[in-house]
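Note to self: keep these together.
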Amino acid sequence: MSDTIAAIATGAQISAIGIVRLSGPETVAIIDKVFVPLRGKPMSERADRSLVYGSLVDRSGDLLDLCLCTVSRAPHSYTGEDTAELQCHGSPTVLRAALDELFALGARQAGPGEFTKRAFLNGCLDLSSAEAVVDLIDAETVESAKNAAGQLNGAIFTKIEAIYASLTDMSSHFHAVLDYPDEDIEDFRLADYRETLEKAEAQLQALLATFERGKVLNAGLPAVILGRPNAGKSSLLNALLGYDRAIVTSVPGTTRDTIEEKLRIGRLTLRLVDTAGIRETEDEVERLGVQRSRDAAERAQLVLAVIDGSEALTEEDEAVLRAAESAPRALVLLSKSDLPRAAAVPETRLPVLSVSAVSGEGLEALQEAIEALYPLPAVPAGEILTNARHADAVGRALISLKAAREAMSVGMMPDAVLTELEGAMEALGELSGRTVREDVTERIFSRFCVGK
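Structure:
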């Protein structure tokens, strides 16, 4: 990391403000050549984090823009290196010209996530906090943003490090007694650490239990609207979205393929799929659509089974109910409640609600019912696991801790217990970056956009 990197930190579209960012040993020297303060000293003689107004110029001294500039010197910066930002007007042409000047003066194009990667490698961020940067940028709900911000602030790191420290104390005590038998060190007794193992195991179990809800918080909830033709599926989708996304007609089989849209339901983001009506058909195209409907239902975490309440139950409705009952979670919706009721309430263990896409009746209750199926864990912001890599590491640490406790329970020698303990510590180290492999690090930061 001996070179200086530069990138446009804002998007490529026209905007009010655009930011060009630098990091590396030549940052301040380069900035002095392209930025001329309106008054006073150059940036190399300014205090850190001063926001200065001036001219952005090219190598010939011609004016490119009037902008703001700030410098932060190592180690008190985001990356741990000398850094600078030029806050320009948001013209892509101006930003590209500014970047070309920085390249001409010795900087190179930053790769995806390279600023945050340098922050991690320089010890300014642990790995779990660095990964939270992407989650914060991608957050689609306030709750997911708060959780990502908590992780960026070190919530996961703090919890994991406390467990890691307690296991380190146990391991170091054992090795100290083993390596220095003549020293006045208190004898190592496994039984003295039983509570330490049990507490660490309980904490990791509680953390891992948040992952199911965390996946929904971060990636959205895969949900499918299922029902026979003309049950009111597409009308329900349109009503929930607030606009006509799907074609609605009285002709059965209008929807022949799946339609997916994102939808905000309270604290949830639904990846909601409208499907072709479930029925037996001779039409080859419609039959393919029906199969896609069944496949979507199998992948979904939530099924909204729509039954036409204005007509008697059919065998097709029964097939829809069976599919819903095999899903992880499901709700049965008696549609068309604005019409006279003809269908009996289905015999099912699933909750049943009445809705009308025409009048809006029951839609608010539907949203409340969906939210109730996926409550947020009662933990502080940042302590919900949303990252599959984190969940995998915590799971492996938990397996090792359970094995260590079981080895202790059956009276095995301390070194057998410590072997499992060290496996748990290695897994936990992957969250903070203590033991992570280089290829994993590269894969993590490849998720980032350039300039972050």
